[in-house]
Design brief:
The complex is a heterotrimer.
Chain A lengths: L23 H9 L2 H18 L3 E2 L8 E2 L3 E8 L1 H25 L4 H4 L5 H5 L21 E10 L2 E8 L6 H14 L1 H6 L8 H11 L10 E4 L8 H11 L2 E3 L4 E4 L2 E6 L2 E4 L2 E4 L22 H6 L4 E3 L5 H4 L1 H4 L2 H9 L11 E2 L3 H9 L4 E5 L8 E3 L5 H13 L4 E5 L5 E6 L2 E10 L1 E5 L2 E4 L4 E5 L13 E8 L7 H8 L1
Parallel strand pairs in A: 3-22, 6-7, 6-11, 11-12
Antiparallel strand pairs in A: 1-2, 4-5, 4-19, 8-9, 9-10, 13-16, 14-15, 14-16, 17-18, 18-21, 19-20, 21-22
Helix pairs in contact in A: 2-6, 3-13
Chain B lengths: L4 H33 L6 H10 L3 H7 L5 H9 L8 H14 L6 H12 L10 H23 L5 H29 L12 H10 L3 H7 L6 H10 L7 H19 L4 H15 L2 H30 L4
Chain C lengths: L1 E26 L6 E10 L3 E7 L5 E24 L30 H10 L5 H15 L13 H7 L4 H14 L4 E8 L4 E2 L3 E8 L3 E5 L11 E7 L8 E6 L4 E11 L1
Classes of the chains: A alpha+beta, B mainly alpha, C alpha+beta.
Amino acid sequence: MASRGAFDEIWGHGGPGNPRPEFAALSEWVADTPSAELQRRQQSAEAAFRQLGITFAVYGDSEAAERIIPFDIVPRVFLQQEWSRLCEGLVQRTQAINAFLEDIYGERRILKEGLIPPELIYRNDQFRPEVAGIRPPHGVWAHICGIDLVRTGPDQFFVLEDNARTPSGVSYMLENREAMLRLCPELFRDFRVAPVDSYPDMLLETMRSVAPGDNPHPVCVVLTPGHFNSAYYEHSFLADSMGIELVEAADLVVDDDIVWVQTIAGRVKVDVIYRRIDDDFLDPLAFRPESLLGVPGLIAAYRAGNVALINAPGNGIADDKAIYSYMPEIVKFYSGGEAKLPNVETFRCREPQALKYVLDHLDQLVVKLVDGSGGYGMLVGPTATKAQIAEFRAALIAEPHRYIAQPTLALSTVPTMSEAGLAPRHVDFRPFVLTGSDGVRVVPGGLTRVALREGSLVVNSSQGGGTKDSFVLLEDGAGPSQSQRQGS
Amino acid sequence: MLMLSRTAAALYWLGRYVERADFIARLVEATVRLDALSARPAGEAAWQSALAVTYTDEAFAATGQSYTQSHVARFLTLDAGHPGSIIRCLDMARNNARAVRTALTREAWTAINRAWLLFQNRASTGGATATLNLVEQIKGETRGFEGSIHRMMRNEATWLIQLGAAIERADNTARLVDVKYHLLLPEGEAVGGVVDRDQWTTILQTVSAVTAYRWLYSEGLQPANVIDLLISRFELPRSLAACVEETVQLLSHLARRTGLQGEADRMARARMARMQKTRTSEVIVSGLHEYLEAFVRENAMLDAAIARQFRFI
Amino acid sequence: MRIAIDHRTRYRFTEPQARIVQMLRLTPCDTRDQTAVSWMISVDCDARMRDAVDGFGNAVTMLYAEGPIAAIDISVTGEVLTVDSGGVVHGSSEPLPPMLYLRTTPRTTLGDGLPAFAAESIAGARDSLERLHRLNAALHARFPCLPDAPDTGLTAAEAFESGRATSRDAAQMFIAAARGLEMPARYVSGYRIDGGAQSAPHAWAEAYVEGLGWVGFDPVTGLSPDQGYVRVAVGLDAHGAASIAGTRIGAGDEKLDVALRVSEE
């Protein structure tokens, strides 16, 4: 239903027989490779992921506690010019997020200007008074941003959500590419695909660039909650590929406002921590006292400027859904120009007029909890049952400030393997943007999530979504296959 | 950066638990042979001593079972209800291995995992032959693990696993000699009395020393020689002397890497100096049991010193 | 008034501890109503101490001690000059706006009984200052005061159900009720002249009144603090303003003894 009329990134609006001109070669590859062969390759990739243990835990699903995320063999492709434009928008948005965090935890100019209602900040649990007044080393807050994008047409990209806390999924980007290189080498011969395997190096450079002081060899570590965490594979994968230690809280001690890691030859001072532990559990002295995962004194060391935490604690205020609707104003305020990447139109249910509109159009809108994530606490109006709509209506009336609503977008599709062969399936996209003291870097690729069920718009892995490799072409249209044809 | 203390602790304990599993397997094997296959079955006493060697006599007594092969062999291999069984040792070994998965080679991990899998969904050991088959398989996997460790890079990870194994082995051999000697030569009886060939062969089998004995001693099976071999012959890998020497070597490899020497190095070297001067005949005269008890105690102190020195958490 | 404070906290452990990290909020900040003439924190074992100011504007001392530690004594001695300000706080450092103190925390959720009690107590009041005074008086009248004791983690709702309250519980109930009425309120820990020996620092509440600023309310007396009070730390609840927040690495239990004497010089 929703896929009818949606823009397909390879086939355009014309269907398999009539692809977008720049994608003719790719469309040919898709058409020429037998379906059974694509199936075989896809299964081989999934088998490899299972062996590597690239699994994720589904909350509230005890039977299939560990699953792999389904992988689709048909890549999603960005043309060079599309990518360059996207990058400009991503860099602008990430810089604005960093400037916003610096301001909110510092001078709060944006509130003095009256651009955001102050209660959205101060009464929001994501604003952390415990870290107010702290400026992180080199003034970088959101070192790793995952900006979730959706697309509705050739040039129509929208930001669906910002992730400025600890965005995950980068291991899928890298493992999906590994699988594609192994299983579809011909694609890389025929197309000049920008490599993504420099991501760990870029991340390590970013980490080193924000080390406090002028130590030329800062000690960087990845902090994991442990091997029971659903993203443990990604934590160990990243530590291994950067060649740095994967530590648990018990390996770290804080003494004299300095963080140390315990090794067999004694303590070593730690300069930069890429922490994959939520704020609440970082330091029992600063946040939740009952947390056993945390490092007592870590926030004191951070406040003293002796350690860089990646990402900075308190960042949740920047990717909060209630703040999201103000992002165009935020980008404009800090960058001085219009946002190059627009938001999806958003109704703030806390505003009475918006609430009235939302209640009148529940069957057409997507309603989200401002503090929900992973597709939980969400109503997709067009596919919802009457009972679900009634339930959300009641919830909205009771606590309107907890919700926002957005129109259902005709998300773009990409050809995807289905039981009935190749078919268009809706996708979204999470590129990863790194910010160090030496500038912003965007890795040329990202995580494409695909809703595997026909017509579904929910791409979350916990709700039947899969992933695809995302190609960024180094030169547009052509690719060697075309030049070969020209030469013959 | 040097290895994390937590990683070091996991590797050390991995070494200890694999060695312990291997030792229990050998002990069960030798006891089955002694009890079921020899001309004069040793019966209850043999199984009671096997429990004493592995510090599990009290735990077994608490089960109220009789001291038969089927009960004790099952207790020492498959019973997950107490920490002294092979299944529990392998479980602990595997947990430690999993926590430091990236410090191990695939081969080493697979050996541990395969040994662990041998025990999954297995309820009984079966008769004597089936028990011997099972322990043979375990020995095969632990041998495979040892081999894979030898093929790993010569670095801290390897040394820590081997250090754990050496400390564990020293404890096992000392316990074995102490319990068996006590059993075979009750107080007041002089060394060199009636020689129970089967019993002494059991001891040698448990530490894979039957051939070594023949090489080193020409005069046939003599208790004093067996004790000499197990205590002070550096040539035998499972002798106390060999374990003591290996511990010193491994600690000095680690010291070279960390640039630090500590309490554990000093204790281990002092222990070796004493060992080099030890004469088995004097030990037997002045009290073997007291000597071994003191050795086991010192070994435990060294274990604690290692934990302090490398800051195991 | 010149107030002398002698506050000793002793932790004894059943087994020696490998490490101790504590966050001490034990230093009063100067305002126009109070000035520390002398102030000293001392510890009876080798420890490193680092001073900082936290996000709420409190003076915080981080204490790091290496084991083995069987016991640790933290003693605070000092003298503070105070003036009576009619309960209004003047010249305090306020890095955060009053609106922040409308947040609820797990310790200050309202529960079932408290909202109705609060609504009833303020009925007929003409302005917010009067509402707050009535709420304070009502809490004072309803809850017989227990002596101050170490924090057991009780929430405002639980304290309301229990029918009795330490100064900590009473302050949290005041805060929860005030916030429920959309009035910013916060927890204050500090000292109060009380004659005799005390077993824990005192706690009360402050609420923000437009035009006046932060005003103190002590449900234990039913009145606003006078010159017999020394403010030390503020927070969203008892946990956020705790005098000593600590973690230790080591087995066994701990036993806490507090000897506190607050007297007029």
